[in-house]
Write a structure and sequence with these properties.
This is F-box protein. 3% of the residues lie in helices and 44% in strands. The strands form 7 sheets. It has a 5-stranded mixed β-sheet, with no helix packed on it. Strands 12, 14, 15, 16 and 17 form a 5-stranded antiparallel β-sheet that branches. The protein is built from 1 helix and 26 strands. The chain has one domain: Neuraminidase. The protein is mainly beta and 333 residues long. The radius of gyration is 20 Å and the shape is globular. The longest helix is centred in the C-terminal third of the chain and has 11 residues.
Amino acid sequence: MSTSRPRESRSIDFEASSLYDDSASVSLYPNFIPLESYSFIRIKGSCRGFLLLHCYYEQRLPMFGIYDIYIWNPSTGFHKEIPFSPFASDPDKQYFNYFYGFGYDQSTNDYLLVRMSSDSHFNDLPPHGEYFSLRANTWKEIEGTQFPYRNPMEDEQLTVGFLFNGAIHWFAYRCDLNRQVIVAFDLLERKLFDMHLPDDFHRELNEFGFWVFGEFLSLWAVYYGDDVHDNSTLEVWVMKEYKVDSPWTKTLVLPFGGTSRKNFPPICSTKSGDIIGTNSHTGLEKYNDRGLMLEYHSYFNGRCGWEVALYTESLLSLPDNEQAYERGIKQEE
């Protein structure tokens, strides 16, 4: 969890008995990032204990893709700056839709930063696919990219993918078929494939996203009431067998009646079955499976905005600094 301006970050153990458990919340900060250089930071993905960070310059507009990219392990402090893609540096590409993702290819012990892009505004330029290999330390083009997709949220230029089962998943609108789908990128085969959405999963949903629920790839959606005190509902679908044509099963319908706030994007479900999510202000909320709020804890003052990313702590190092990490362990011993 971090504020949008690079002032404070916290690591929170969601399996702790309470959100108010001080031992479960640790303040941390990427000290390699100079405070005076950036206006705000966005978390664009996580994988095996590493976070993908976009650090935006205050004097430049983020919509034009001017930012620095870092991969950071908060548990060890290891970090790496990723060079900007030559393709994305082209001013002709500033209005492209970008589909971002961060994942791991276990067959090569390599971390990949994936970027698919398309000219959704003018359709004059061909789509482009590329990925940055941490092991090779270079951007590589995905040849023969066919990418007839655009962001279903028309006011957002950059879509962040969800990593599950060795593939990065995005919600997308498939232009040639005129329908909304899930498009996924297989990190092992370096190929795209489509997955269908549930039949009752509608584009008019107020908020929606991916998460893992009961160890399955899952979708969540929030329906808001018409009035601030009307009922809101969280619905959850799971894919119990991960295949392209596998069915989705709606497993949870969670009402939030009588609350003064309506939005509750979920983050994770705990081992005890509780659901933790964010609100539109400064903190986290915990609900049981009947929709009863168990806890709310505020962490920031809310003036700068904030965001949350789920990650699992690890002592892993990046492929190009494994030897340096081993030397550091021996020196500490």
